[in-house]
């Protein structure tokens, strides 16, 4: 899948991913009304609205982008029907040729970690049958539990040629509370002070990545927020063979100029996510003229603008 | 819910929790066969087997125990049907008066964290309706993203009087890779060296716990593995108002004697989990005489033995 991701990026010339993180208040009233008319104001009704909204956005942007990243929490909040909408979204995006990154941030140990890896990237044996549960192409994974939590994912990645993005430095304001703590008895990449925890995690990611290589990049990538560009620069060097999935562009404040150092010299190695900025574009002043009725066209315009913005910044540094 | 947990523990005199972490290979053939006969060798068939297995175990042990802890990964691996079996299990255990700890180890930020908290502990608004998604009583949460990941859970806990257990020191062999790293510029509880990360996390848990108090204990608990008793002793002091959820007893090697320091002087403050040791008891030599047909009775015998084991160890230290 890392090969498919690279091919898709080259084909679209767009190192971006659209985060399918629907909130009910993003979804235009006409879609909510139609869904509630059919299923009532129920979890099923909400899930139907989410699915119809996603479908229209995907239809409007799929030819421009390499990948989508549905955030499972946004579906999980609508219980089983919500997760069924997640499943439909994953399946539909795969049909459209998109790489699907399940933003699930799972993390556990031993047989439980095996079960999560199976659920999202693998296959499960039931009697004489081998079945696919959710079937994403990539999943995001939390590193707090160490190698015991990661290894089962590596095994499934090798088997299925799928991939993971491990949280290293997240985009949120309080990410430093633990991730930036300086570790005693180490030397930082700059040689002068103790390494922060995120760099230690980055080094482990590089190790895991080495053990799980595709042709040029590893199946093992990392999550590094757009909001910490200096750290991104360091982590790019620490994990040379890993794709970096970059949240935090746009709504969270990350700028294209800040992101150029997340890429390698081959122009690859990073994929920048935008969620709200794309899927709820029609709510921005800039795209308001589309109106709620043409929300998907607003999303398309926002995708075009994002690709231009990032490519312009990348060209300026080449 | 922390009050209900305490009441249930007092009523049963059993500071334990049964981990409902079904693997297909734990489930006796007769149950699998019946489920596959009805639903085929499908995800639905596997989910039905899991549900029937759980139901029989719960029926056999519910009067002896205060709480159960279904591990969602084990259900997620069977896709949507698996998660429907998780939901059924949660609902059934609540009907039986058990406290349900959803072992979901979720962790994300901002609106995504709100969505996870809503999914597992809260209520979601759909049109004019207020609906309950999964509806567990407690959830486990990963701290790697810092306060931004925890605060939405605290808000829901206050609103719904529910609770969380935050991963502090996990029971697995590689948990030390990141969790034991010594943090520069701090002094350990023993006064001599830098604090390990898990202690820093424990201090944050204590802070969050203070902001979210029930009558005597906080809605905010912690996960500390039975396999690291010395660390458990320190963390007990660091987080005096938090219940500690203790995995790693039994199958993973944790002994009752090691666990006495996870409790406070009031005899409360910890709840010890056993999963495989209870639900697959009939596979152990000790309980083999029950046979696969009477697997649930073997589970009951294993629960009785576990309660005796822990209470004996607790009494010896009082």
Proportion in helices of chain A: 40-55%
Q: Note poorly predicted spans of chain A.
A: none
Mean pLDDT, all residues of chain A: 96
Number of helices of chain A: 13
Strand content of chain A: 5-15%
Present the secondary structure layout.
Two copies of one chain form a homodimer.
Chain A lengths: L1 H11 L3 E5 L8 H11 L3 H19 L5 E4 L2 H4 L2 H17 L3 E8 L3 H12 L2 E3 L2 E3 L6 E4 L5 H14 L2 E7 L6 H4 L17 H14 L9 E5 L4 H10 L5 E3 L9 H4 L10 E5 L1 H4 L15 H23 L1
Parallel strand pairs in A: 1-2, 1-10, 2-3, 3-6, 6-7, 7-8, 8-9, 9-10
Antiparallel strand pairs in A: 4-5
The gist of it:
The structure is a homodimer of 318-residue chains. Chain A has 13 helices and ten strands.
Descriptive notes:
The structure is a homodimer of 318-residue chains. Chain A is an alpha/beta fold and 318 residues long. Chain A is built from 13 helices and 10 strands. Chain A has helices spanning 2-12, 29-39, 43-61, 73-76, 79-95, 110-121, 147-160, 176-179, 197-210, 229-238, 256-259, 276-279, 295-317; strands at residues 16-20, 67-70, 99-106, 124-126, 129-131, 138-141, 163-169, 220-224, 244-246, 270-274. In chain A, the strands form 2 sheets. In chain A, strands 1-2-3-6-7-8-9-10 form an 8-stranded parallel barrel, surrounded by 7 helices. In chain A, strands 4-5 form a two-stranded antiparallel sheet. The first copy, chain A, is globular. Chain A starts with a helix and ends with a helix.
Task: Jot down its keywords.
homodimer; 8-stranded parallel β-barrel; 318 residues; alpha/beta
